[in-house]
């Protein structure tokens, strides 16, 4: 019981830590096998142009269909993969799977202008742009169709190497998006220093629009920055019609969130691409 545990903190913690480290070893071997056993999945969440109601892009979000634990969200294994040097393998799988799916849609005559993938800092190794181009080539995918989402935290490691890699990705024609904008250590000079195409407003600032006065102020400011710097803007985590209407009224370029659609398995997203989504937001 609790009182007893509180009396024996060391015993309790060592048992708990042992249990956890065993669980982590298990997770590492499992994750190694997940790729071979074809247990990783990409889910797709549309990004909607609120004026037309058309799907202008999508974000690929990884899931792990674990044989015992069920469908795991990225929060349950990506940080772990980053710590354990497995993120390179997982990241490569994501790019390959994204290209495969884009090629499939292309072949089926379904048009998706852009598919975004999330990149971890660890994937930024010299030669990244060239490696990505090599993956795209056999699928006949153009770099502009693949959007690379990076976070502010990554940009904080501003060194010459990082600047050069981002410039190479941009020069190769990849679309770059800054994810979770406003949540990191926001140095606005980054926006000028790096060749970024899209800003993604983090969902915490979207929440409660237009009733949350603080978020209204923040979102107005972010929209102003994006417009003045000529960046496209995507709002993340749009959950209500009120949020959607406010953002559409502010000329936010694209909306992404449960109000429009949840991240969907490939078959369901394909149906959405074929049949179109709901009406314009107004
Ligand atoms: P993110 O890139 O910011 O992705 C958006 C997250 O918000 C997704 O969570 C998505 O399911 C969720 N979301 C979308 N719309 C709504 C909404 O209306 N309301 C709420 N409450 N949530 C919404 P998910 O799929 O669990 O992914 C979490 C994070 O994991 C992602 O955040 C991204 O940082 C990371 N991640 C996902 N896939 C990958 C991947 O392939 N590679 C790497 N390195 N990281 C990934
Ligand atoms: Mg993202
Ligand atoms: Mg985000
Ligand atoms: Mg614009």
UniProtKB/TrEMBL annotation:
<feature type="domain" description="EAL">
    <location>
        <begin position="24"/>
        <end position="277"/>
    </location>
</feature>
<protein>
    <submittedName>
        <fullName>EAL domain-containing protein</fullName>
    </submittedName>
</protein>
């Amino acid at each position: 019981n609790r009182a007893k545990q509180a009396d024996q903190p060391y015993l309790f913690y060592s048992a708990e830590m042992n249990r956890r480290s065993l669980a982590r070893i298990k997770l590492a071997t499992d994750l190694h096998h997940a790729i071979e056993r074809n247990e990783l999945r990409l889910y797709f969440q549309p990004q909607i142009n609120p004026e037309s109601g058309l799907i202008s892009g999508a974000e690929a979000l990884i899931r792990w269909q674990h044989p015992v634990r069920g469908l795991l969200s990225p929060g349950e294994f990506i940080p772990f993969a980053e710590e354990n040097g497995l993120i390179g393998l997982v990241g490569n799988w994501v790019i390959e799977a994204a290209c495969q799916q884009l090629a499939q849609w292309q072949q089926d005559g379904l048009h998706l202008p852009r598919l975004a993938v999330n990149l971890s800092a660890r994937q930024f190794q010299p030669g990244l742009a060239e490696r990505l181009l090599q993956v795209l080539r056999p699928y006949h995918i153009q770099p502009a169709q693949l959007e690379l989402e990076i976070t502010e935290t990554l940009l904080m490691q501003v060194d010459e190497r990082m600047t050069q890699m981002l410039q190479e990705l941009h020069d190769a024609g990849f679309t770059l998006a800054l994810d979770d904008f406003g949540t990191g250590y926001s140095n606005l000079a980054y926006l000028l220093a790096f060749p970024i195409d899209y800003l993604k407003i983090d969902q915490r600032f979207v929440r409660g629009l237009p009733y949350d006065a603080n978020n209204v102020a923040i979102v107005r400011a972010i929209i102003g920055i994006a417009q003045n710097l000529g960046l496209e803007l995507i709002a993340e985590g749009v959950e209500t019609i009120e949020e959607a209407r406010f953002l559409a009224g502010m000329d936010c370029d694209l909306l992404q969130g449960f109000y429009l659609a949840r991240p969907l398995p490939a078959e369901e997203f394909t149906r959405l691409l074929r049949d179109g989504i709901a009406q314009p937001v107004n």
